Every structure is written in structure tokens, then in C-alpha cells.
């Protein structure tokens, strides 16, 4: 599956980048955290327009001058990194303010990148902005478009131009990167013991690999010609309250490892007979944010019949999740099933990165609506065409009659159709519904 082109929204804070992103995006996945000591990340989604699809990225505000604090500096660094990866840059400005000196300096930085840049003068619905449009020519870019992110004015014209600016040729294939696996869980559940056991497996060649952060412990393992990078993370903090946000339960390096991973191995202590609130939050978060998920019930040597019945009973309310994810009973102490785990990880990785025939998908979805027609207020839901636009995670675009009619329950039905037809245990499916082009 070819890598999608990337379109990046940049600009000062509070100029309307996120408003524009929300207007273009239908599957917004915010992983923004504002508390001290935790990374604040960008948002991204796949946007399709005129039969072309691209990845849209909304960044935090970029600082031209020295940042006020480390968090602000980190946000700016993340945005600059996204600019390096961009195919098209949308430079969002505030028409009610005019051109600021920081934006002039930022424009000089963008010129050095030698990438297509569109200057979007936001809030053009305000009358006095018309008299300021000419000011933005001083930024030195040929494309300057007045828009209103809030009301959608001229947004379709922007998308038309973006599609024209996207690369026409398929990029050369990148060097194959390792399958990235993150060991996540509470303290003392056996994550480090599991890592040590995995890297000592027969047929596994171990090599040091720098982590994505200074604190990460990452080992690269070659397993039957599959490179696997396994990251051990600090444990989730214990909190008394169950209302805490997931991000507050995790140190930033654990959260970073989860975000970067293809596959999350959630390690739990099976001898406890249940999953804690933190562990359940981790499981749902990982799967809902398109990570393949394997739940490992460690310390299984301590599980007797009573604990097993208690565990089975406590998992009943979450049956809808456990039908989709893979669970595995292991014991790092006795070695139970640990020797099989890399094979399981590789198999889930193959599912996570598989591609499908678009014609086959289209036929499958149309046939599913023949067997069971879905309705919205008496109106039939129609799927005209299905197109896979990426893997890792599997992402399908459904071209339909009315995208607004395809809510969570309808998409859950199509999720079930896919899982009945294909072996997708442990991997998520991401759906995007678009109006069929006239």
C-alpha cells in the first residue's frame, strides 16, 4: 500500500488551524495533553477529495523566537518535524490581525523548505479583512486564499488546489522499518521479565537499537526475517480515582511508546482475577486509536480454578472488545507460552499490514446490505464503492449516498462483516465515509 501524501496545517496559535482541521476531518483523534511533563501531540486524519486521498495533520503553534518553556518548545519542535515530512503546507493566518513580524520570519523558514505552500487568510467573512488581503503578499508565496474555517467559505477551492499540488508519482518505497511493539502495563506485572525472555529466544538475533526517547528501553529482534523493535515502558501510575484521564495515569515516555507502536502488548497480572480500571482504559485507548492489541495474562502459573472463574466473570462486561482482540496466557516465571509469543506477534503484524482487493471489498459490502439492509429514518444506506487507502491500520473509505447516516452502530455492522470474512483478530479497522462524487 503506497504511503499517502501529507498535508500539514501550520501557523501561530489561535489563528483557526484546528477549526479548519475539524471542518475537513470526519475522524478527529485528538491526543492532546496540556498538563506539565506530558507531550502535547498533533492531530491527523485521512481526507479524500475528488478521488484523491491524503493525510491531513494539524500542528501546535510554531515558535520563531525562543520558546517560553520546555513544553512550548517541544510543541514547536513537533510541528517543525511535520513540516519536514509534508508534501503540501497550508500556512494559516488571521485576516483580522494582518501580517505579524513572527509570520514574516516563519515564511522565510518555509521558503527554505522548497515545498508547495498555500497561505490561507482565515476569517475572511469579516468585512474589514477584504482590505487586508494584499498585506499577505509580502510573505512571498504565489498562492494566497481568503477563507472562513468557521463557515466553510472557499474551503472547497482550497481542497481543489491541494489535490493539484499533491505528488503525482508514487514515492520510492521506504526502507522497511521494524514492526514496533510496546510493552504496556502497571508496575510489577512482568513487562521487563517478558522483554528479557523474548530477546533470549532461539532463532532470535538481538541488537541494540536507540529508543525514540531518552528513557525508552528498546531492543531489536530478528525473528524469521521479520525485524521487531520491542520497547519496555515504565508502569502506569496507580491512582485512587477512576475519573483521571488516561494520559494522567501514564508517564510521558510510556504514552510516547504507545503512540509510536504498531502492536501494543498489554501485560496484566492474571492472578488478580480482573483487569484494573487503568488496564481497561489502556486496552480501549490502544484499540480505539488504531493499534493492534494483544492482552497478555502473565503469572498464569498462579491462576487456579477459582481465580479463572473470577477472571472470566469480570471480563463479561467487556466482551465486545475481547471478541476483537487477541488474549494469551503466559508465565514469565515458568516460560509458559513465552516461546510462542514472537510468532503470535508476527502473525498479528501481518494482519495489521495486509491489503485487500478494492473490487472484493466493494462486492462484500454491497452483498452485506442485500442480506441486511440498513436504514436511517426509513431511508436505505447505500455503499457504492469501497477503497482501501492505507494499512497499519487498515483504513477503508466507503463512498456512500449520505455519509451522515453512517453512525457508530452502522460502522460496527461493517466492522463485523469484515471480521467474519477475514482473520482480523487483534487488529482495528478504521472507516471513513465520503459522499460519492457526482
Largest sheet: 7 strands, mixed
Mean pLDDT: 81
Name of the CATH superfamily of the largest domain: P-loop containing nucleotide triphosphate hydrolases
Overall radius of gyration: 24 Å
Please tell me the CATH architecture of the largest domain by its name: 3-Layer(aba) Sandwich
What level of helicity do the residues show? Answer: 25-40%
Structural class: alpha/beta
Count of strand segments = 18
Low-confidence stretches: 28-40, 171-175, 201-216
Amino-to-carboxy terminus distance: 26 Å
Q: Using the coordinates above, name the CATH class of the largest domain.
A: Alpha Beta
Query: Strand order within the widest sheet?
Result: 8-9-10-7-11-12-13
Question: Can you describe what's shown?
Answer:
The protein is α/β, with parallel strands linked by helices. It folds into three domains: 6-165, P-loop containing nucleotide triphosphate hydrolases (Rossmann fold), CATH 3.40.50.300; 179-352, P-loop containing nucleotide triphosphate hydrolases (Rossmann fold), CATH 3.40.50.300; 358-435, GMP Synthetase, Chain A, domain 3, CATH 3.30.300.20. It contains 13 helices and 18 strands. The protein has helices spanning 17-24, 70-85, 101-113, 155-165, 191-198, 246-249, 252-260, 277-288, 305-315, 319-322, 341-352, 358-371, 408-421; strands spanning 6-10, 43-49, 52-58, 88-94, 117-122, 143-146, 179-184, 204-208, 217-223, 226-232, 263-269, 292-298, 326-329, 375-376, 379-380, 383-390, 394-400, 429-435. It has a seven-stranded mixed sheet, sandwiched between helices. Helix 8 links the parallel strand 11 and strand 12. The chain starts with 5 loop residues before the first strand and ends with a strand. The model is unreliable at 28-40, 171-175 and 201-216 (pLDDT under 50).
